[in-house]
Specification:
Helix content is 25%, strand content 29%. The chain is of the alpha+beta class. The protein folds into three domains: 122 residues, Gcn5-related N-acetyltransferase (GNAT) (Aminopeptidase); 159 residues, Gcn5-related N-acetyltransferase (GNAT) (Aminopeptidase), CATH 3.40.630; 86 residues, 2-Layer Sandwich (Nonspecific Lipid-transfer Protein, Chain A). The chain has a seven-stranded mixed β-sheet with strand order 1-2-3-4-5-16-6. A seven-stranded mixed β-sheet has the order 8-9-10-13-14-7-15, sandwiched between helices. The chain is globular and about 65 Å long. The N terminus is likely disordered. The chain binds acetyl coenzyme *A. InterPro entries: Acetyltransf_17, Acetyltransferase_Eis, Acyl_CoA_acyltransferase, Eis_dom, GNAT_dom, NAcTrfase_Eis, SCP2_sterol-bd_dom_sf. This is GNAT family N-acetyltransferase.
């Protein structure tokens, strides 16, 4: 008898289920499995969008014979780091296992296969948006940015502060979807370089966003897009919003929902907010997700009118795969050195690392034999990587252990950033 176990035969395990990259011809069946996995029965295959997003070799299926019972997709993206560098990362999405086949290790197999391939390709980290909090920690991911939104009652807000100046000589125009598709990408490219935690938006993103291709399971409704151009005619901001048409008897009681807000400077932001807070019939504004450091409430006549949105929670999860590349690429607030003992059951980040930075903000992670100041898992380190989480807070929660008193605060001074990392985009 052959000594070759089924587990060693081209990804087929003892249960007969094979994990492999799909072909383009299998995209329809794979897409149907995604819909079933996300509890949406009978949806169209959405082939046009899926074709746009197909990266050869990176769309995985778990196959039991012909039947696709698990799905997993990754694609290349870039993460803006503190300091403005763009780190190539693997973005993971469309993770599903059919209900009849769950808890048999299929996600674990797809994830481990894809993370190993990402590391091979030289992607220093993987990112994803987690459907549920408890799925991805076991694979070394940690929450690294938060969703941050506001509900604003316009009767209480008293508009924007009177002393705030909008852009001098700028103008606002409502634009249609074809124009948004034309001008949005270049504006976003400029904007994302100044926002740690932001990611790139590809062609598929803009086409889906503007309704040029449909995404199965999502009811697309054309939003409003208002563009701000400065006195020289350069596009410096965009706000995308929807209106929920509500009436209280004979009185308008509409809600304006801000879906996307990109402003390159404060005068642009002020002009856009002033517009959004003064649309006729609108009595309340929901800002679904905006940077945690965005000053929005402080721009209002009464900041208490902005109440935190109920979905404010963890958003981008990050899994470090190559500490030397990842920590060498970001910048640091100043000089410092903290030695970390990192636990990583899958090995990528495991070991003792000195995280150090010079006065000019250039830093690195290097393997060391020095005594460790702090012990933590790779997921906690992923949470700290972009600077949006604090080591002191994780230490208080027992998720980081100080071996030297004060080490958590020393790490915060090293990795903390002037502008909190934030990512507006689900994927
Ligand atoms: C990036 C994204 O696409 S997020 C979307 C994720 N998908 C969904 O939420 C859709 C509905 N859920 C599913 O499709 C599946 O349940 C999945 C993909 C979440 C999990 O797939 P499975 O194949 O069941 O996971 P697998 O068997 O590998 O589980 C590994 C471990 O994670 C645990 N686990 C898996 N899912 C969950 C969960 N939702 N909550 C808590 N623990 C979980 C398992 O119990 C198991 O633990 P163990 O190792 O201690 O036994």
């Amino acid at each position: 008898m052959s000594t070759e176990t089924s587990a060693s035969v081209a990804g087929i395990a003892a249960d007969g289920i094979e994990i492999r990259a799909i072909t383009e011809a299998e995209l329809g069946a794979w897409g149907s499995a995604v819909s079933v996995g996300f509890m949406r029965a009978g949806l169209p295959e959405g082939l046009e969008k899926r074709r746009l997003r197909l990266v050869p070799g990176r769309t995985l299926g778990a196959f039991e014979g012909e039947r696709c019972v698990g799905t997993f997709r990754s694609f290349p993206n870039q993460l803006t780091l503190p300091g403005g560098a763009l780190l190539p990362v693997s973005a993971i999405t469309a993770v599903t296992v059919t209900q009849t086949h769950r808890r048999r290790g299929l996600l674990s197999r797809m994830m481990r296969q894809d993370l190993a391939a990402a590391r091979e390709r030289g992607e220093a980290a993987a990112i994803l948006i987690a459907a549920e909090y408890n799925i991805y920690g076991r694979f070394g991911f940690g929450p690294s940015t938060r969703m941050h939104g506001w509900e604003i009652d316009l009767n209480r807000a008293r508009g924007l502060r009177a002393d705030l100046a909008g852009s001098a000589g700028g103008r606002l125009d409502l634009i249609g979807m074809p124009e948004l598709r034309g001008v949005g990408p270049a504006l976003h490219e400029r904007w994302r370089r100044g926002q740690p935690g932001a990611i790139a938006r590809d062609e598929a993103f803009w086409k889906t966003y503007t309704g040029a291709v449909s995404a199965p399971g999502f009811d697309w409704k054309e939003p409003f897009a208002v563009a701000h151009r400065d006195a020289g005619g350069t596009l410096t901001g965009l706000a995308i919003y929807a209106i929920e048409d509500r009436w209280d008897g004979s009185y308008p009681d509409c809600k304006l929902v801000v879906k996307d807000f990109l402003a390159l400077d404060r005068p642009t932001a002020v002009s856009l907010w002033r517009y959004l807070f003064s649309v006729d019939w609108v009595r309340s504004v929901t800002v679904e997700n905006i940077g945690p450091d965005d000053p929005l409430p402080l721009l209002l006549g009464d900041p208490r009118a902005a109440v935190p949105h109920k979905e404010n929670n963890d958003f981008t999860w990050l899994r470090l795969l190559d500490l030397a590349t990842a920590f060498g690429a970001r910048s640091y607030a100043g000089a410092g050195r903290v030695v970390l003992e990192v636990a990583d059951p899958d090995g990528y980040a495991a070991g003792r690392w000195a995280l150090e930075a010079d006065a000019d903000g250039v830093g690195r992670a290097v393997v060391t034999t020095d005594e460790a100041d702090l012990e933590l898992g790779v997921g906690a380190l992923g949470s700290l990587y972009l600077g949006a989480e604090s080591a002191s807070r994780l230490a208080a929660a027992g998720l980081v252990t100080e071996r030297r008193p004060g080490a958590a605060f020393a790490l915060d001074r090293l990795v903390g950033t002037p502008l909190k990392a934030w990512n507006p985009d689900s994927f």
